[in-house]
Amino acid sequence: MCRILAIALLFAGGGCGDTTPATLGPTMKYEKKFGAIPLFAPCTEEQLTAFEGELGASLPEDYRAFLMEWNGVYFENEDAAFLLKNSEDDQTDCFVTRLYGLMEAEARYDIRKMQAGYAFNERVPDNILAIGNNSSWCHLCISISGPDRGAIYFWDPGEPWEPDGKNVPTREWMDPVADNFAEFWQIIYARPPYEP
User: Which of 21-25, 78-82, 103-107, 126-130 has the highest mean pLDDT?
Assistant: First the structure.
């Protein structure tokens, strides 16, 4: 009887010391949205483990699951829009055109390559990883360690866009979007047509 209960708790996402919701487990499935096209073939466990070794941190489980299923996407039909957390009701939609994946370190839209663009990795704290962008090269980011591990942010440094050679890591241009990647995937919607 105890064994049956333990198995039931395991599949429900419960168990001793486990407070992670079942929906954030590695078997989570991300439904297709807005004509999403995978950027690369699904990640393997070996690729993810090697990447985590490079980072010196483990990726949040829900984002790991996304990479194993989709490994980056391009939203072909409409951009994926979202609002910032705690925003005003009349806030303009933020959006992303693609989410990065893992292929080769120098491949276009590979997560590793995108960290260096416009000195992003010099302008944010070490625990922040760029995981997507839009046509204005604002980044969608995820925290990979610390008290906000798993949280999703939108990084928009404003103008001027080019680094000035005096980069200091800061959260100044980061606005919270969601508590985790699974929540981000749930809240995105098709970006409304632009109206000047």
Answer: 126-130
